[in-house]
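Private note to self, pasted from the team thread so I don't lose it. C-alpha cells:
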C-alpha cells in the first residue's frame, strides 16, 4: 500500500523502491540489500504506529545516508 501511494505521488519525477516486498518489516532484520537501497534514498516512508519503527530505526542508524528522512505516516494521522 505504501509503495502504491508513493509511486502515484512521485509519478514520472522520481523512483520508488520497496525495501521489504516479500516479507514485512515486523520482526525482520536489516540486511545489506536493505541498507544498499537507502544509501541513495531521499525519503523512507514507514507505516509507523509502532509497527515498523524498530526496523526503520536500525535501518537509519546503520546506513551511511546521513540525509535520509524517515516519514512515519501513522504519526501524521489525527489521533482522534
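Design output:
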Amino acid at each position: 500500500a505504501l509503495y502504491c501511494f508513493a509511486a502515484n505521488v512521485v509519478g514520472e519525477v522520481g523512483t520508488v523502491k520497496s525495501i521489504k516486498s516479500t516479507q514485512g518489516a515486523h520482526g525482520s532484520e536489516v540486511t545489506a540489500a536493505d541498507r544498499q537501497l537507502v544509501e541513495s534514498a531521499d525519503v523512507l516512508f514507514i507505516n509507523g504506529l509502532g509497527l515498523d519503527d524498530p526496523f526503520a530505526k536500525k535501518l537509519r542508524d546503520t546506513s551511511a545516508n546521513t540525509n535520509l528522512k524517515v516519514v512515519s505516516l501513522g504519526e501524521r494521522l489525527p489521533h482522534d
